[in-house]
Structure formats: structure tokens, C-alpha cells
Amino acid sequence: MALTKSSNPVLSDKIFYNSRLQSHSETMTINGTVNKIALLLFFVVAAASYTWGMVLDSAGSGQITSSVYPWMIGGAVGGLILAFVTVFKPAWSPYTAPFYALFEGLFLGGISALMNASYPGIVMQAVGLTFGTLFAMLFAYKTGLIKVTQKFRAGIVAATGGIMIFYFITWIMNMFGIGNGFYYGSSLLSIGISLFVVAIAALNLVLDFDFIEKGSQAGAPKYMEWYGAFGLMVTLIWLYIELLRLLSKIANRN
């Protein structure tokens, strides 16, 4: 049975297996990975504060789209490109992961500010829920309340794959102008779908914790601390965006 498999596509058995084939003098540690996660979070917040400020500065001028959207789009595209580069070249993660965090921060800062303008206070709620979920899942994992068994892992992998397919289908529907209000609207069905996605994203955190722990036990090279931190950041960013979406749907019903 694979001990280090995660449903997070950037954290897979193959990555750690290939890394162990390389010669290295220093090995991955949990403390080292935690430090890298904290640093990536700092980069995300620093970049997000820039585009957040741009939205606030331009709110009264009517130039939000022209001034902020290029930074948001550039951040989203740049983050996606760097994510693929990091997945295919894990050894580059000490360099690509910080830039990934910066690019994603540019996108998150802009979208967060725009959402907060429409729903005051929603960002603080989403941030609080994101970190609350992070620590709750870490507690559940460390205390054994949630055990990463093969069946548990397989279920989360299948659900995550299904959500990715669902995202792709809704994207195609949007391209052809086909209505999909069942997901983007504020109906009970739409809220239920978002709750399910949030739950799966949260459970992915448990698999990521397990993956990082097993990777450190397996003696992965030092650069895998950056790669493990990058993988966890991917899940956290996904969780935060989905929480923003869920909270906005709930707000629309009030």
C-alpha cells in the first residue's frame, strides 16, 4: 500500500519516489516544511495587500477593471504556469514556490477586495474559516480522530477528481453561454454543492498532512520541504476561494 499518496495532484507517490532516487545530504523535516508554509503565507499576504490596495484606491474613480484586473489575471495565469512547472520540476520548488505564492497573492488580493466591496466583512469570515479549518483538520489528524486509511484516501481522491471534472464542465458551459445557475446561483442546491466542495477541500488537508509526515519519515531531500509547502498552499488557496463563494451565496439569500 502506498504510504504517501495524496489526492492533491501536486503531492503524489511518484514525486517522493523520484526524489529519493537522487543523492542528497540533508533531508526533509516537518519543522522545515512548517517554516516554508509560513513563508509562503507571508508572500501571499504581501502580494494580496498590493492588489487589495489598488481596489480601494480606485473604488471611487470607476477604473477598477482597467487598473486591477490585469494584475489579477496576470496573477492567476502566472500562478497556474508556475504550479505546472513546480509539479514537473519539484527540484525547482525552492525558487518556483515563492513566486507561485506571490502570483496567487495578486489574484487573491484583487478578488477578495472586490468580494468585500459587495459583501462587507466576507473576507475576514473566509480567512477565519480557512485557518480555523486548517487547525481543526490538523488536530483531527494528530489526535487520530480522522485516520488516513486506504478507503478514506481512495474516497477523497475520487471526490476530488469528480470536482475537477465538474469545474471543467461548468467552464465549458460558461464558454458557450449555457446557464449553470444551479452552481453559481444562491439556491439551496448551489449552496449544498459548495458545502460539499468545501468539505472535500478540508479533507484534502488531512491527506496533505499525512503526505508531508510520511515524506519526512521517508528521508526525502531538503528541497521537498518547499514542495510539500507548495502542495499544502494549493489546497489552502482552493479552500479559501470556495469559502468565499459559499459565503457570498449565503449572503445573497439574506
List keywords for this structure.
254 residues, 9 helices, mainly alpha
List strands and helices in order, with pairings.
Layout: H1 13-20, H2 30-58, H3 64-88, H4 93-118, H5 122-143, H6 150-175, H7 181-184, H8 188-217, H9 224-253
Helix pairs in contact: 2-3, 2-4, 2-9, 3-4, 4-9, 5-8, 5-9, 6-8, 8-9
Report on the structure:
The protein has 254 residues and is mainly α. The chain has one domain. It has helices spanning 13-20, 30-58, 64-88, 93-118, 122-143, 150-175, 181-184, 188-217, 224-253. The chain is globular and about 50 Å long. The termini are far apart.
Q: How would you sum up the global shape?
A: globular
Distance between the termini: 48 Å
Q: Figure out the total of helices.
A: 9
Assign the structural class, choosing from mainly alpha, mainly beta, alpha/beta, alpha+beta, or little secondary structure. mainly alpha
Number of strands: 0
What's a quick, concise take on this entry?
The chain is mainly alpha-helical and 254 residues long.
